[in-house]
Specification:
The chain contains four helices and seven strands; from the N terminus they run E-H-E-H-E-E-E-H-E-E-H. By secondary structure, it is α/β, with parallel strands linked by helices. The chain has one domain: Rossmann fold (3-Layer(aba) Sandwich), CATH 3.40.50.2300.
Amino acid sequence: MSGDGALKGLHVLLVEDEALVAMLLENMLDDLGCTVVGPAARLEDAQALLDNEEIDAAVLDINLAGEKVFPVADRLDSNHVPFVFASGYGEAGLDQRHKAHKVLQKPYSMAALRQALVQEVMRSAAGGGPKPAPGQKH
C-alpha cells in the first residue's frame, strides 16, 4: 500500500510494550510513508527518544507494563505534537486531561490508524490542537 500524502515523511514516535504489536504497527506506519522513531517499550525509553529525536507525531500505548504513558503524552501536548492513544481498553484507560485525544481500540486496522493520525496531524497543522474534553478549558 502506498503512503498517505498527509503522513508521508512524518517521524512518528511508536510507544508500545508488546513486541508483536510494535512490529505490526511499525510495518503499518512504514506502509503509510512514515519514518518510525522507536519503538519504545518503556516510559524511560520514550522519554529518551523525545529528548534526542525529531518527532512529528506519535502513537502511544496507554499501559506500558503497568505504567501509564501520560508523562509522554503531557510532553507531546506541551510541544504541540499530535498523537493518538492505542489501548485494549478503549477510552476507559484514559484520564480526564487526555479525553480530547483519539483512542484506537486494539486491535485496529491500518485504515483506522491512518484516519486517526491524519485527523490529529491536520488539526494540529490548522492550529487547533485537541479539542478540550467536556468541562475542561483548553
